[in-house]
Amino acid sequence: MRVRTIERDGTRVSDSPRTPAVSRAERGCSARQKLLQELGGQHIPFLSPTDTGFQQLWESSYSGLALRQAESLPSDLHERVRSALRSLQRRGCLFRDLVRIRGRDVFTAVSRALVGRPGDTYRYLGTRLFALPWHEEERDGGAADVCCDRELSDACRALWELNQFFCQDVERREAAGGQGTSDDPPKGQGGSEDLPEGQGVSDDPLEGQGGSDDPPGGQGSSEPDALGTGLADPRFNITLLNYMDPAAMKDLKEEPYYGMGKMAVSWHHDENLVPQSPVAVYNCSSPDEKGAGSQDGEVDGACWRVGLKVAWDIHTPGLALPLQSGDCYYMRDDLNRTHQHCVLAGGTPRFSSTHRVAECSTGTLDYIQRRCREALENLHVDPDTGSKTLRSLQPSALQLSEEIHNEVEFEWLRQYWFQGRRCAPFCSWWSKPMEQLEESWDQMESMTQLALAAAEDEGSSEERRREVAETLLAALTDRQEQRQTWRDRCQSSLAQTLPPEEAPVNRPYWGEDDPPRPLPFDLTDIISRVESLLWRL
Ligand SMILES: O=C(O)CCC(=O)C(=O)O
Ligand SMILES: [Fe+2]
Questions:
Q1: How does DSSP assign 201-223, residue by residue?
Q2: Measured from the CA of 112, which atom of ligand 1 is nearest?
Q3: pLDDT in tens, 131-149
Q4: 203: left (phi over 0), alpha (psi -120 to 50) or beta
Q5: CA of 281 to the centre of ligand 2 (A)
Q6: Where is the composition biased (Low complexity) (predicted)?
Q7: What is the Rg, in whole angstroms, of the alpha carbon atoms belonging to the chain?
Q8: Residues 490/507, Cβ–Cβ less than 8 Å
Q9: Pair 406, 476: CB distance under 8 Å
Q10: Cα separation of 309 and 201, whole Å?
């Protein structure tokens, strides 16, 4: 498997709707230009709650958006979540990610941490984040197998409780009404809520996630606060935390299409979610506040807002929804697919906890461990001599193990080490599994070497040698390219700006002076050997 460069929806426009509208058109780009041309440098209207028609717009064009006001969440939950966010921030658990957007490396404007079901990962903008595990069980005294200290395990547990709250809320709404479609009335949640609709132009993730996915499974109405009773199937498996202090960020981009103001997160669709699954967001702009959330936070500056627009549409007005500290909002139904959202910076530092149903079919530790076992089934190690042989030279068997080899190397090991040792100071959960994956990968290096020997074995039939060589050539070419890409990412000028603990590590890496390994790191010569073999056979 190769690294997917999924900046799907590569619909990034430019920062200013004016100039780019023309120049992009000249370059003959996509449908987006047409929209921008139509726009001709004008801003598209957008509505805020004080504008006439706001509610109608919400209901007609943004009905997948639902707001749950701070007062409708239990105040002790607010308190625990705020305290968790403060702890994670104080302990340095949030980082700006060095992501990849359209082939360019960029730091996210917000600092992030992923917390979730143990072993889950979340991939966005070419980056796989590895979850700090949330702890469902209350920690007893001196539990031994812990990966982090008490303060952090309590923090992660508070986020799990918030997650449970959201799971149950979504479940309750679904039961109450909607079958996941968007026709629920905008009411919806218990406390207070409102919803919107609107839309915008097309656009882009300048820094947000670029993919397109979908949102919520719909929910219907619901009652206010209660946590509901039924045990909700924990649909949200991860939360991506965001933090930004606007005072520390000089060059936030202006929202280009509507003139909504400075953006902390540019227009994007959330990537890599289960289709139609909901997203639930907890907004916290005053983590130091006591009591249930409220107006404060906003006194010394503008309010934080979430902006929404309809994808590929310049006729429907956009929507800007102000958020008080403690307010939550949901993106349900198809909203994430049909619309884009952005985050408009307010005047105070702000956290958000964004709960998602990540598409994890190839993104859990269990999954990749299973894949490694599958690949290694084709390796036989003589128990007496330790000598290694391949059980089968069938192209399908070789192809499988070579693919898994690439998958574990590029989707797991290099992704992990690219993020440096940044989480090591406070969480050891991934250390051992990563060592084990590296051991499996190491065995796969031997398997590739054995396959190469089979291709070059003059005692074998030409047909067999050709098949083996062809299979190898494809996998090795891919491997060589991806190693190059990762090496470049590790050496980029932005990567050099990181402190040593956070700096990308190009691992696995070995050079000529290191102890001998089955194959060299640089596969150029091996690839030439296989190519010339194919010429001859
Ligand atoms: O912070 C928010 O309200 C939303 C952030 C967001 O869109 C994201 O992290 O994908
Ligand atoms: Fe988002």
A1: -----SSS---------------
A2: 9
A3: 999 978 776 665 556 899 9
A4: left
A5: 9
A6: 212-225
A7: 25
A8: no
A9: no
A10: 7
- Residue 224 Cα to ligand 2 midpoint, Å, equals 25
Cis peptide bond upstream of 395, omega within 30: no
pLDDT tens, 44-54?
999 999 999 99
CA distance 25 to 39: 13
Alpha-carbon distance of 163 to 169, in angstroms, equals 10
Top mutation candidate among 252, 273, 341 for ligand 1, by most atoms within 8 Å of CB: 341
Q: Report the atom number in ligand 1 closest to the C-alpha of 304.
A: 3
Residues sharing a CB contact under 8 Å with residue 160, sequence separation 6 or more, in sequence order? 115, 134, 135, 136
* Interval 504-513 mean pLDDT: 96
Residues 6 or more apart whose CB falls under 8 angstroms from that of 164 comprise 227, 232, 234
Measured between alpha carbons, how far is 380 from 233 in angstroms, rounded to an integer?
Answer: 42
Distance 208 CA to ligand 2 centre (A): 7
Mutate to test the pocket of ligand 1, among 212, 265, 357 (most ligand atoms within 8 A of CB): 265
Amino acid 301: pLDDT = 64
Among the atoms of ligand 1, which is closest to the Cα of residue 323? Answer: 3
H-type alpha helices, 377-461 = 395-406, 414-418, 431-455
Do 11 and 204 form a contact (C-beta atoms < 8 A)?
A: yes
Residue 148 identity (one-letter amino acid): C
Confidence of residue 166 (pLDDT cuts 50, 70, 90): very high
pLDDT band at 266 (very low <50, low <70, confident <90, very high): very high
Quote the DSSP letter at residue 145: S
Give the other-Cβ count within 10 Å of 53's Cβ: 11
ipTM: 0.99
- Please report the pLDDT score of residue 256 as a whole number: 92
Per-residue pLDDT at 31: 66
Return d(Cα 125, Cα 102) in angstroms, integer: 9
**Distance of CA 157 from the midpoint of ligand 2 (Å):** 23
Q: Find the residues whose C-beta lies inside 6 A of ligand 1.
A: 208-209, 240, 242, 265, 270, 281, 283, 306, 341, 343, 352, 354
Whole-model pTM: value is 0.84
Q: In what side-by-side order are the strands of the sheet with 318-323?
A: 46-47, 318-323, 304-310, 339-344, 262-268, 253-254
More confident residue, 307 or 145: 307
Ligand with minimal distance to 305 CA: 1
Ligand 2 center from residue 243 Cα (angstroms) = 13
Identify the residue with better confidence: 182 or 478.
478
In contact, 67 and 194? CB cutoff 8 Å: yes
Distance 15 CA to ligand 2 centre (A): 19
Reduced to 3 states (helix: H, G, I; strand: E, B; else coil), residue 403 is: helix
If you count them, how many residues does the chain have? 537
- Residue 471 contacts residue 447 (beta carbons within 8 Å): no
**Percent of all residues in the chain with a pLDDT value above 90, rounded to a whole number:** 73
Nearest protein Cα to ligand 1, atom 7: 342
Ligand 1 atom 4 nearest Cα: 343
